[in-house]
Amino acid sequence: MKRLLLIFSAAAWMLAAQQAAPPFVPNLEQIGEIKVRMAVLGAKLEELESKHAGTDVFADVVIFHKAAEWILRHPEEFFTKAYLDNTLKALETGAVRASELQEGKTKWPNRKGRAVRAYLSRVDGSVQPYGVIVPENYDARTPIRLDVILHGRGARLNEVSFIADNEWAKAAPAQSDRLELHIFGRTNNAYRWAGETDVFEALAAMRRNYSIDPQRIVLRGFSMGGAGTWHIGLQHPARWAAIEAGAGFSETKSYAKQANAPEHQQRAWAIYDAFLYARNALMVPTVGYGSIDDPQLQASVNIKEQLLRERIQPESIPALFLVGPKIGHKYAPESKKVSEDFIAKALASPRNPDRVQFLTHTTRYWDAGWVRVDGLEKHYARAEVDGTRSGNTAEIKTKGVTHLVLRGIDSARVDGQNVTGSPSLIEKRDGKWATAKATPGVLRKRHGLQGPIDDAFMGSFLCVRPTGTFRDSAVNLHALTRLNSFRSNWDKYLRGDVRLKDDNDVTDKDIASHHLVLFGEPSSNKVMARVLPKLPFRWENGKVEIAGKTFQAASLLLVAIYPNPLNPEKYVVLNSGHTFGEADFKGTNALLFPRLGDWAVLDSQGKTLAAGFFDERWK
């Protein structure tokens, strides 16, 4: 017995030693070699930029330089010597591509098998990678199926390892019936916020560069990728021919252990709690999977149980819930085959696009195909659309909806009321549906302008730094600390640089192009001074009046999001990047939910004194 204990102790010590092993540390000579190769590639990129900037093929070269730049910024990401070797190989590969582009003889866009491609993100102007697998028999003249693959959480994932896996380290699977798009997702964020935008930006780039059948795009993922598939698949059901979610998570309260979260945070869980959207499986063939001994089987169970609460028998709709054998956190091959057969059958019999059965809790998720939900009675509460289209006419029933966008519809009957006159945007006024009236200056929460604060960072944004006189130096220090923390977290966890300007340098073009994220106070930030008098709250002389409440104390900081009075098509944000922080990025991805709603008042120590949401009219 004593010998067994010694053996077990030795094994445990060895395991602990392996886990605690420090990352590989390149020496000065190795770092120098990286920098030399970066300089060579950088010089080539400068020559190419005037002719190719903004093109996909230019991004396809820039990404190799970026990979090296980011691993040097974060040297703790040299986890093993392979990261050094792959950084050098990435720079070598980038130089080869640059030479091909200079000569007008690019080879990689036509490569079969695996390749790394890239695109320029509208969110922050960064270059982001994606991986492709092109079958040997691919013919650009014939559109084919595309599988969009969301990866699981990778503790050692960065641009270098992603490039290695998708460019040279892994063999391509032997398949002939589909293209594959492997999403980077800005590393590990469960495809939320900018990670969600990455999925659709990479898909758009893929569609620009390959011949894809839009009726045969499948979304699938496992573990963190399963969580991403649950929310993106069920919240955008009209975009996919089928979805397959393995393991992952589909709710916040239990998975992230948030039973005591404040009400305003729990309300915002409706954004990403995918089980609430289970009914949308009526619109897209759905596979859920988990092994019997994997705790993440619960993600699939949550969806199935919600369908039953909706009085929908999973067997009566195109949905398949698979339970694998006792193999832990893995996809069983036999279950995978059953799923593949189910998806192939679904693709052979496309769903009826004329029938819409759609549920949402926010206008961020609005697209049901020919009908879109562009206004709700109350955000983060359930809203439904059930509609049938016949030619250019439609019969629609709604619950909790105030505005609809109809596409290709000349006349509609909504909730028993006729709406004619080639309706596109229709609204419910005093209980009656009619073509929407133009109401200049009247704000309402609608798609892409519904909050909360974190929503601003799914689109193009510009942070604005104060240069003026401080009325309260503690307030400005607090604001700038929040700015610096946001910039640092964005760099590390969302793999880009935030756009940043001084308040004196903001132009009309900036106001037209970006959400403005203003830091400081009205006396120190000139842009904030311009917009604050036009917002429905007050902040002056240490007093904040908002949502019918008054706060007066030393060094209060106001945090908020609102349609920008200088450009109501964009947001203005006061004193906040993402409302979650570094500890949440390091923890489970389910922690990446809003902490402050649409507005909050913080004390001098950063404690939340109050937080909440504006109503549907932004009041």
- Number of structural domains: 3
**Proportion of beta-strand residues:** 25-35%
CATH topology of the largest domain: Rossmann fold
How far from one another are the termini? 71 Å
Strands side by side in the biggest sheet: 1-2-4-3-5-6-7-8
* Number of DSSP helical runs: 14
Main sheet? 8 strands, mixed
Compute the CA-based radius of gyration: 26 Å
Tell me which CATH architecture of the largest domain applies here.
3-Layer(aba) Sandwich
Output the structural class: alpha/beta
> Mind telling me the CATH superfamily name of the largest domain?
Alpha/Beta hydrolase fold, catalytic domain
Runs in which pLDDT lies below 50 for 5 or more consecutive residues are 1-19
CATH class of the largest domain: Alpha Beta
Average of pLDDT: 94
Q: What can you tell me about this protein's structure?
A:
This protein is of the alpha/beta class. The chain has 3 domains: 108-348, 3-Layer(aba) Sandwich (Rossmann fold); 367-435, no CATH class; 453-612, no CATH class. Strands 1-2-4-3-5-6-7-8 form an 8-stranded mixed sheet, with helices on both faces. Helix 2 runs antiparallel to helix 3, helix 2 (28-52) runs parallel beside helix 4 (81-103) and helix 4 crosses helix 5 (159-169). The N and C termini lie far apart (71 Å).
